[in-house]
Amino acid sequence: MRLINSTARSTPADQASKLQELLAVSVWTRSLTLEQRRRIESETIVRSVPKGAYICRKGERVEYWVGVIEGLGKMTNTAASGKVTTFTGVTTGGWFGEGSILKDTHRRYDVIALRDSEIAYMPRATFMWLLDSSIEFNRFLLVQLNERLGQFIGMVEYDRLLGPDGRVAHCLAALFNPTLAPGIRPLIKISQEEIGHLAGLSRQRVNHSLKVLDEAGLVRLEYGGITVLNLEGLKKFGE
Known about the structure:
Layout: H1 12-25, H2 34-43, E1 45-49, E2 54-56, E3 64-70, E4 72-78, E5 84-91, E6 95-96, H3 98-103, E7 110-113, E8 117-123, H4 124-133, H5 135-161, H6 164-175, E9 187-188, H7 192-199, H8 203-215, E10 219-222, E11 225-228, H9 231-236
Helix pairs in contact: 5-6, 6-7, 6-8, 7-8
């Protein structure tokens, strides 16, 4: 597994352009003043994180709020026994890590890139300044934290009550949360192997489940990706 400091960097112009793309789809930027927007753009770092590398690591001091410009990562934890638990996927347009910043603690999980990804790192000082200067940003964080809590409660329920087909359905639905991942599109470029990492299933079992969901009219299997046809149906599948 490669470390974050081994990742390549884009040129400053590329970084600025990629960051602006992320800010354009982020809900919390809509009420920012020009001054706030300029400070965020000047202080936020953009890095290219290759497949298999850490976007951030368990145990490190939380110095950044993290956004996904383009790509896919899995939020995961490995026990001393070696057992791996995957909590959720983080996709294009999503931001995460606000809870750890607010608690001012060490990170409790790893986030690993499942494909080559472009990642934005907002310094903790910038995040706290924005928290102190924007009521709208505070409101966004309340919604974000509530959505994240609901997502994790749902994951525990689905993992205990649903079979593999239902777990794959809810895994895909979670990637399309409009609050946590506003940049996602109906056609998501994701492989069966990547879904397996997120759902805790083998690629072969994911292949079977996707065919079941396709036959149910909930998704359409595409070359190199999946189109979601019925998001509400995915959320309810297997219940």
